[in-house]
Amino acid sequence: MSSDSKPAILEIRQLRKSFGALVAVDGVSFTVRQGECVGLLGPNGAGKTTTLSMLSGLLTPTSGEVLIEGRALAGDVDPLKRKLGLVPQELALYDELSARDNLLFFGALYSLDRATLEKSMGEALEIVGLADRAQEKVKNYSGGMKRRLNLAAALLHDPQLLLLDEPTVGVDPQSRNAIFDNIEAFRAQGKTILYTTHYMEEVERLCDRVIIMDHGRIVADDTLSALRARSVKLNLLQIELAKESGSDWLPALRQLDGVVTAELAGVQLSAQVTNLTKVTPSILEFLHQRGSEVTHLSTERPHLESIFLSLTGHQLRDK
Amino acid sequence: MNTRPFLALVHKDLKLHLGNRRAMILTLAVPIAIASFFGSIFGGGSGRTKPSGVPLEIVDLDRSAASGEIITNLTKDDSLTVSIVDEKSARQDLRKGNAAVAVIFPKNFGEDAGRAFFRPGAKPEITLLHDPSRNIEASMVQGILMQHIMETISRRVFSGQSGRKYAQEALTEFDRTPSRLVPEEDRRALSNMLSSVDQWLARPSTTNPAGAGPSGGISVPFTTRNEESAPQTNSKFSGYNGYAHSFGGMSVQFILMAGIDWGILVLMERQKGLWRRLRGAPLSRGTLLAGRGASGTIIAFCTMMVCWAFSMAVFHVRINGSWVGFIACNLAFSVFAASLGLFIAALGRTPEATRGIAIFVVLLMVMLGGAWVPAFIFPAWLQKLTLIVPARWAVDGFDAMTWRGLGVSAAIAPVAVLMGYAVALSEIARRCFRWETD
């Protein structure tokens, strides 16, 4: 079954939230289907967290509606909330309690009986790799471990839709990879994921659809491949030279047909080119003519950074 | 209300409280230490410690038998701690605060006072020096001094040769007084009285073989018997115990301080994103507030019980009144303290800004509530005004159930007022709480 044919688990229609004169979210509409992993990408202040707060019932929209499985949340105690698993951006944990006590508490908030809670707690701890440290107080955990426990706390009631608000903020690369593995495991279990981040590479790795937000509005909502096709067709060519040979020849290189940019850092030459097939031989010939030996060559596809730039006119991390 | 999340909220708060051993010990140790100190100041245990007398310094420039007798009587008075010094030392001690009051008996005081007893005109002047911060003690010393001087001087005037001398001198001077100054009828009456005094003192004494005449003089026409008020129905009444008031007062203060911490904790949870998780769960607002209120009440109540148990074991504080009333007062105050925490959580914005103002308000409340010093020390208008302060009702309730030994009916008003305040604060908290979290 293609993703389009799957039922929508989340529908957001013309959602708007203003705080006085500040419009944080301005007419946002999108749909998330069952089993999808959707990345909500945007710089800080784009309105991602506010959107997430509204769809999890923490904030009342100024206008618009949020439908979960076709129905709007009806108050604080609506059982529909059990469909959602919110992972806040902050480390929402009690440092003075053990990981186990934290999970027992958060699970009990969903009225899970003890046996169910023990079982789901064990599974959640296994998934995030903290089963052997469960009795330890959270204050003794590393930042990465706290992030993983933060994730586990949202899994206990077996939610269908996971709302992950920048879950890798402030963690080391190793822990980040562990979190990515966890999220991929959730996908394999059939969970639907809405993942906010301002890291391009995370969306590229995890999500099959990207919603790009800027200034409270959606500027793009499509699959990665479609976004790439829509964006300026630029490829990055990386060439490693055998030895350093000054940079006085770079302006001449930039004059070659199809070369958009060219930068040299030591022996590493980076060039953005419009057509890989045509331009690569020209560059190699240019280097051969001036006696520069090439030891390695690689290329990269257009990435989200350039897509975001082409859509919004500014870099993602400008803000 | 779903009980499982509610119990989880309460259990979590209790676990956090008990897990922070250092904070918990401080929560108990600090009020106990301060209450012990204040208790010793306000009279200590019932009948166990004799209150120290007012420090009185006496300068005796007279050195007569009369001044000596007065000083001896003053020294025997339980409410005074007398020392004899010279005038320079007396003034110095008062300036330094080492004495409350100093009395200077002038030269010839005994003689002049005896003469002045029957005659108008100049009287000997006793100088009463006092520390300006101790006016109440100065007034008290003045009263005691007057009593002993009148007893001593009148006894000397109405007894023995010295008495006859004063009476005869007064008669002689009276005869010399021009007739235009005293009406004839008055003159005759006064002359008869002084002659009678002289004749009375001239009689051979049956009680004094030395012929010094009968002992007499003016004495206080009554005696007093001190008795602590006690309920007639309570044979186990243990009397006033200063520690009972101080432990009640300090418990009130520190539980209210803990109430601030509970409120601040909610604000910190909000900052940490925990509130997002709590609000994300299918819980009613009532459950969230009730959970916090219940855990606060339990912690406050248990803390108070530990403090009271310490005061009973170490300082012999007793519940002379109703145990039911005592428990009810503690419970009502605990509910009030927990609701104060909710109130602070609802109105506070940041932990830092909230803490300062909340501490100020609580200190004001406990000060006006008589937690530091008993409310009866306040001026009358302030005693009435402070009835709007809930801490006052708590302290009065504890006093009533402990050393005052009153029955359960005396607990009804404090419990009702505290519960009323608790309901009001909780309702304000519910309405004003920032339920939305971005």
Summarize the topology.
The complex is a heterodimer of chains A (319) and B (438).
Chain A: E1 8-19, E2 22-33, E3 37-41, H1 48-55, E4 63-68, E5 84-87, H2 99-108, H3 114-128, H4 143-152, E6 161-165, H5 173-188, E7 192-197, H6 200-206, E8 209-214, E9 217-223, H7 224-230, E10 235-241, H8 250-254, E11 259-265, E12 268-273, H9 276-289, E13 294-300, H10 304-312
Parallel strand pairs in A: 3-7, 3-8, 5-6, 6-7
Antiparallel strand pairs in A: 1-2, 1-4, 8-9, 10-12, 10-13, 11-12
Chain B: H1 3-19, H2 21-41, E1 54-60, H3 65-76, E2 80-84, H4 87-96, E3 101-105, H5 109-118, E4 127-130, H6 135-157, H7 160-176, H8 184-202, H9 242-272, H10 274-280, H11 285-315, H12 323-347, H13 351-368, H14 380-385, H15 390-401, H16 409-432
Parallel strand pairs in B: 1-2, 1-3
Antiparallel strand pairs in B: 3-4
Helix pairs in contact in B: 1-11, 2-9, 2-11, 3-6, 5-6, 5-7, 7-8, 9-11, 9-12, 9-13, 9-15, 11-12, 12-15, 12-16, 15-16
Task: Tell me what the structure shows.
With 319 residues, chain A is α/β, with parallel strands linked by helices. Chain A has 2 domains: 167 residues, Rossmann fold (3-Layer(aba) Sandwich), CATH 3.40.50.300; 67 residues, Alpha-Beta Plaits (2-Layer Sandwich). In chain A, strand 1 and strand 2 form a beta hairpin. A 6-stranded mixed beta sheet of chain A has the order 5-6-7-3-8-9, with helices on both faces. In chain A, strands 11-12-10-13 form a 4-stranded antiparallel beta sheet. The mean pLDDT of chain A is 89. The relative contact order of chain A is 0.14. Chain B is mostly helical and 438 residues long. Chain B has 2 domains: 234 residues, no CATH class; 149 residues, 3-Layer(aba) Sandwich (abc type-2 transporter like fold), CATH 3.40.1710. Chain B has 16 helices and 4 strands. A 4-stranded mixed beta sheet of chain B has the order 2-1-3-4, sandwiched between helices. Chain B is elongated.
